[in-house]
Amino acid sequence: MDQVYNPYQSQIEQIEIEITENQKLLDDALMHDLANEEITRLLEEKKALELAASDFLNGQNKTNDDSSQVAQNANAIIEIRGGAGGDEAKIWANDLMRMYTRYAENKGLKVELIDDLVFKVKGKVELPIVKIDEDGKINKTGETEWLQAYKLFRYDSGVHRVQRVPSTEAAGRIHTSTASVAVLPEVTATAVEIKEEDLEWSFMRAGGAGGQSVNKTSSAVRLIHKPSGLVVSARTERKQAQNRQIALELLRAQLWQIEEDKKMAEIDEARSNIGRNMRAEKIKTYNYPQSRVTDHRIHQSWHNLEGILGGDLDELIASTKSLLEIDENPEKSDEQIS
Prior knowledge:
This protein has 338 residues and is α+β, with helices and mostly antiparallel strands. The protein folds into two domains: 1-62; 72-186 and 274-336, Alpha-Beta Plaits. The chain contains ten helices and 13 strands. It has helices spanning 9-23, 32-60, 67-73, 87-106, 149-153, 212-216, 240-267, 305-309, 314-328, 333-336; strands spanning 76-82, 110-115, 118-122, 124-132, 138-148, 158-164, 175-185, 199-204, 220-225, 230-234, 282-287, 292-295, 300-302. Strand 4 and strand 5 (138-148) form a beta hairpin. Helix 1 runs antiparallel to helix 2 (32-60) and helix 2 runs parallel beside helix 7. The longest helix is centred in the first third of the chain and has 29 residues, at 32-60. The protein is elongated, with a radius of gyration of 23 Å.
């Protein structure tokens, strides 16, 4: 029987080498305490990686979820990047992150920071179900449904445009800036195959306040997937082993999405992949002078900009989900049009 691939094995072996090297220093009176402290830290990292490896290998014995199940039941990884607009675009990216995290926290979801403007959302939300009448108006049905984080946010992937007067604009001119939002599912280790030889790891100090521990510990992780050129990083955790796991999770999510995009393109090249390939397209505009948010895919507007940016997203998410699910699954249109 072939040995099951373990993506954590090379990392465990590297830590074992480092432990052996530090053990050789225990007989040195000057280095003993420092080496002993380093061995303790390395053993903790090794234990964390061995637990991650055990979870992965146990998952190999289970039936892999298909793509639809991954999407249905996954937590969400959200990455926001400032686009056109310079410093104002960076400010706008942070505003979007604040909007999503406020909404998530208000709904009782758990938010975990991965890196700057990259975070994971865990849990389920009860969302109102809406239907569309013959005039295209959105009506609440009084019913609700429970959605896991990825299914909740997946249609927000795309370019979000803001029109406003920046705080640095002395002449009071309205500027247009953009930020892109990528919403990815947190996929299981068995859903995407990642070969160790395709990975290039690098480690660095996470920064922050000084001190012996910070200066000698390279806990921040940067991971390059050589075949795809994808680069991910994680630095929020104090332990390197935890940041390694987070980086692998983020890489798996991005590789899974790439494969999903390919599958959808093969099914129908002429079909618009709402929520997937439209990341490069403008999907929403946030207009400050008119206190208006417009979703250009469904041709709907809301005149509650302040509340929306404060995390009041239920109506936007429910309406967008209802209309775009019809676009992705035309056979559902009769059910959702009252």
